[in-house]
């Protein structure tokens, strides 16, 4: 894996601020909802792929194919932090989670391999629909 | 039933490894189908995300390129914000959190359902990276 060691000081000042704020928005969302920070980052990075963050910055934050990996690199430490805080507040049930640990790991690896082998476009649309309907249900349900 | 939970977890983890809806699906399963409270579901989902995303990351990373400076800046912003968000999650009424989550899902789902025409146009403008 290539990690390009760009020091924060070499990024322009405005893009520095934007990145901090973007991370902040993702962190806030993730802390509040337990999810979604990664999605926010991926959407935003895809939008910004065609824009310069500031006149002297690189034209893009991450190449399209690297967007997902970049978002995960940010969200993993942030989620660890959120999880620790949830745990200290007693809102994390480790016993309930323990049977799910192995399926999570196996599934994650499996999905990563399948990504290159399956066409996922229609699957994404289907799940977007499920997500949409569930969202509406969550809003109106009491 | 534990077996059903494990199978669902496997499937959702695989989907998230493929880049499909990782965040919301687990919470949806836990709250709508399994009856956990919103907060319990969010906590379990956080743990789930950590393990599923970390394991899929290991596979993805060998083929990807990350700009460390940008990542560090985003993390710098993300950590204090996560603290704030978590405090809000614990302090606000569950109904509010659930509705906010619902709004979030609608915002995420809507472009996915409507979006293929938009994406086609954008793809034509894209250079192949």
Write the H/E string of chain A, N to C. Answer: EHHHHH
- The proportion of residues forming helix of chain B, as a percent range, comes to over 70%
Mean pLDDT of chain B: 81
Helix content of chain A: 55-70%
Number of strands of chain A: 1
Largest β-sheet summary of chain B: none
Rg of chain B computed from alpha carbons, rounded to a whole number of angstroms: 17 Å
Tell me the greatest interface: A-B, 104 and 101 residues
Distance between the first and last residues' Cα of chain B: 45 Å
Topology, pairings included?
The complex is a heterodimer of chains A (142) and B (129).
Chain A: E1 2-4, H1 13-33, H2 37-48, H3 67-88, H4 94-115, H5 121-140
Chain B: H1 2-17, H2 22-33, H3 38-61, E1 65-67, H4 68-91, H5 94-114, H6 116-125
Helix pairs in contact in B: 1-2, 1-3, 2-3
Provide a concise account of the structure shown.
With 142 residues, chain A is mainly α. Chain A has helices at residues 13-33, 37-48, 67-88, 94-115, 121-140; one strand at residues 2-4. Chain A has 5 helices and 1 strand, in the order βααααα.
Structure report:
The complex is a heterodimer of chains A (142) and B (129). Chain A contains five helices and one strand, in the order βααααα. Chain A has helices at residues 13-33, 37-48, 67-88, 94-115, 121-140; one strand spanning 2-4. In chain A, helix 1 runs antiparallel to helix 2 (37-48). The longest helix of chain A has 22 residues, at 67-88. The radius of gyration of chain A is 18 Å and the shape is globular. The model of chain A has no long low-confidence stretch (mean pLDDT 79). Chain B is mainly α and 129 residues long. Chain B is 83% helix and 2% strand. Chain B has helices at 2-17, 22-33, 38-61, 68-91, 94-114, 116-125; one strand at 65-67. The N and C termini of chain B lie far apart (45 Å). The model of chain B has no long low-confidence stretch (mean pLDDT 81). Chains A and B meet through strand 1, helix 1, helix 2, helix 3 and helix 4 of A and helix 1, helix 2, helix 3, strand 1 and helix 4 of B. Strand 1 (2-4) of chain A pairs parallel with strand 1 (65-67) of chain B.
């Amino acid at each position: 894996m290539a990690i390009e060691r760009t020091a924060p000081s070499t990024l322009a000042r405005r893009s520095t601020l934007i990145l901090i704020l973007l991370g902040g928005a993702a962190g806030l969302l993730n802390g509040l909802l337990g999810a979604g920070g990664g999605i926010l980052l991926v959407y935003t990075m895809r939008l910004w792929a065609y824009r310069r963050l500031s006149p002297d910055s690189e034209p893009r934050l991450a190449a399209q194919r690297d967007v997902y990996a970049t978002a995960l690199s940010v969200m993993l430490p942030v989620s660890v932090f959120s999880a620790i805080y949830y745990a200290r507040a007693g809102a994390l049930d480790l016993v309930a989670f323990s049977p799910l640990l192995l399926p999570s790991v196996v599934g994650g690896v499996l999905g990563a391999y399948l990504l290159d082998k399956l066409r996922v476009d229609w699957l994404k649309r289907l799940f977007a629909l499920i997500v949409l309907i569930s969202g509406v249900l969550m809003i109106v349900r009491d | 039933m534990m077996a059903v939970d494990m199978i669902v977890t496997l499937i959702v983890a695989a989907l998230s490894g493929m880049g499909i809806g990782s965040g919301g699906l687990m919470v949806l399963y836990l709250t709508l189908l399994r009856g956990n409270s919103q907060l319990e579901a969010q906590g379990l989902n956080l743990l789930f995300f950590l393990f599923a995303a970390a394991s899929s990351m290991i596979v993805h990373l060998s083929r990807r390129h990350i700009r460390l400076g940008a990542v560090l800046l985003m993390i710098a912003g993300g950590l204090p914000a996560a603290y704030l968000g978590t405090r809000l999650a614990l302090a606000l009424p569950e109904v509010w959190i659930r509705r906010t989550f619902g709004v979030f899902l609608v915002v995420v789902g809507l472009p996915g359902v409507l979006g293929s025409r938009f994406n086609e146009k954008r793809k034509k403008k894209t250079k192949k990276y």
